[in-house]
Amino acid sequence: MTVEFSTPDLCDAHPDVHILTPGFLSYGKRSRFCGEIVTVKCFEDNSIVKEQVATQGEGRVLVVDAGGSMQCAMLGDQLAQSASSNGWSGVLLYGCIRDVEIIADIEIGVKALGVHPRKSVKKGVGELNVPVYFAEAHIKPGFYLYSDANGIVVSSVSLL
Questions:
Q1: Following DSSP, what letter does each residue of 98-128 receive, concatenated?
Q2: Which of 1, 24, 37, 76 could be bridged to 99 by S-S, CB 3.0 to 4.6 A?
Q3: Are 78 and 104 in contact (CB under 8 A)?
């Protein structure tokens, strides 16, 4: 199910929303996605990302603070498909993804800083549902994320 909204309209109606700095690129089939936030904080280890996309997403958005690493991918086609199959609305990665041609056909929103062909390590290192800060925005579990072609906004309350 696609929810209709526009981030410019949300910003106009709610001037207190947090706006992430530009620079994220869109890769999934859905160019517009939104939902309650679940956070993962990890660096070059996507073990917790893999665990989370295997759970029921219930329309939520997985926000991954990968430290902005440009050394490996934190999400590939298999994890994107798992997220889609399990009902996640989207994934926002402060890091890289891979398998972009396949992810473009998967029914999910995916935004990331870029692409990298190398997979991450799997050591089980990272934190789940902790506050994160990147792109000049404080993002907490339970906040709401709205993403479209105009940008990404975060709010402490649902705006729809």
A1: --HHHHTTSSSEEEEEEE-SSBPB-S---EE
A2: 76
A3: no
pLDDT at position 71 is 98
Supply φ then ψ for residue 103, to 5 degrees.
-60, -30
- Cα–Cα distance for residue pair 122/10, rounded to 1 Å: 38
In one-letter notation, the amino acid at residue 131 is P
Q: Which fold has domain 16-155?
A: Glucose Oxidase; domain 1 (3.50.30)
Residues in the chain: 160
Q: How far is it, in rounded angstroms, from Cα 74 to Cα 87?
A: 19
> How much is the pTM?
0.97
Whether 99 shows a pLDDT value over 60: the answer reads yes
Residue 128 bridge partners (DSSP): 40
Strand runs (DSSP E) across the chain, as ranges? 18-19, 25-26, 33-41, 61-65, 90-97, 109-115, 127-128, 132-134, 137-139, 144-148, 151-155
Residue 75 corresponds to which amino acid? L
When pLDDT is cut at 50, 70 and 90, the band that residue 142 belongs to is very high
Domain spans in the chain, listed from the N-terminal domain onward:
16-155
